[in-house]
Design brief:
4-stranded antiparallel sheet; 337 residues; 5-stranded antiparallel sheet
Length: 337
């Protein structure tokens, strides 16, 4: 379903407490608001093994990697590469096309058995990808460009599943982000078993064995579905509720309490500040699908006299083979200084 906004601003957020460089506005209290708008939607091509897409990431100009949550039903654990064209002049997506892919392998360099993973995110890294699995087997894994095993990243003790604690099934790891300097972060959909239900944790792997953790508090009746890095401290988080209720928030670790290594959260920790930059509510006729993953697109060409820079943001859907895989294009506008 195609439903273009043709320039209508959907959400105008408050102050964005960040600095992006390249002339984009920073977070002084008087900074103009960031705005976003819905632009266009296209369906991915329908082939039997393609579907259940839970993550997407930019790997080049118009080229993207996508990962499937499916392990065994329509094939082994796998990811795809695709080309998604976009016309900035028309504000319109081109027909996406699949270009390749690979199989995510185990530490023994064998395909994963059915049920051994539930992949929730993929991000491009130098030399390959990092992928994150939720569900019954939760892990963060670096893989080569065709899916060969590189290493698993160790989760903190509080995250390790036990009968009463640790990552919490479908409220466990839900997305992965890679910062501009290569730092890997993962976000849980909600609280660990021992934490308050809406107290998701953002874990960042530093150099060596260093780690940092912060609390991201989801809206009532929503869970986090994906996380995307803006810079070293700021992220976009996709939150999803029942039905078509979907929002994207800009959030930052600056000013939040570090909970690194904390075995159990009390619920009064200062969480990451967040501001909504997109909501599906003003688009009642948009067939949203199950919005599941986000990826940055290209920066759009500057226009003389324009007081902002704009970048495309893609949101992919995961309807578990019950419907088409949709790619929604948004435009995020960053005010200049």
């Amino acid at each position: 379903m195609r439903l273009r906004s043709w320039g209508a601003t959907l959400v105008s957020v408050g102050v964005v407490m960040t600095a992006l460089g390249t002339g984009v506005a920073a977070g002084a209290p008087s900074a103009p608001a960031v705005t976003s708008r819905y632009v266009d939607t296209e369906n991915m091509p329908a082939i039997p093994s393609f579907g259940a897409i839970s993550g997407i990431d930019r790997i080049g100009n118009g080229d993207y990697a996508m990962i499937s949550t499916d392990v065994g039903r329509a094939g082994p654990a796998r990811f795809y590469t695709a080309h998604i064209g976009y016309s900035a002049r028309l504000g319109q997506l081109g027909a996406p096309r699949l270009t390749g892919g690979g199989t995510v392998l185990s530490p023994l360099e064998l395909p994963l058995l059915p049920g051994d993973a539930q992949f929730e995110g993929i991000r491009s890294m130098s030399g390959g990808y990092v992928v994150a699995s939720g569900g019954a087997h939760q892990f963060v894994r670096e893989i080569g460009p065709v899916g060969t095993f590189v290493r698993d990243l160790g989760l903190p003790a509080a995250w390790r599943p036990t009968r009463t604690g640790g990552v919490n099934g479908q409220k466990g790891i839900t997305g992965v982000a890679v910062g501009p300097r290569g730092a890997i972060s993962v976000l849980t959909a909600g609280g660990l078993r021992q934490d308050p239900g809406n107290a998701a944790r953002l874990l960042t792997f530093g150099p060596g064995r260093a780690q940092s953790e912060f609390v991201y508090r989801t809206d009532p009746d929503k869970v986090a579905a994906d996380v995307l890095a803006v810079n070293d401290t700021d992220f976009l988080v996709l939150e999803r509720g029942r039905g078509r209720v979907t929002s994207i928030y800009w959030t930052t670790t600056r000013g939040a309490d570090a909970v690194t290594g904390k075995a159990e959260l009390a619920g009064d920790e200062r969480a990451m500040g967040k501001t909504q930059i997109f909501s599906a509510d003003p688009l009642p006729h948009l067939a949203t699908g199950n919005m599941s993953g986000m990826a940055w697109g290209d920066w759009l060409p500057d226009v003389r006299g324009q007081n902002y820079r704009a970048r495309t943001l893609y949101v992919v859907t995961n309807d578990m083979f019950a419907g088409p895989t949709r790619v929604h294009a948004l435009e995020v506008r960053f005010p200049r200084r």
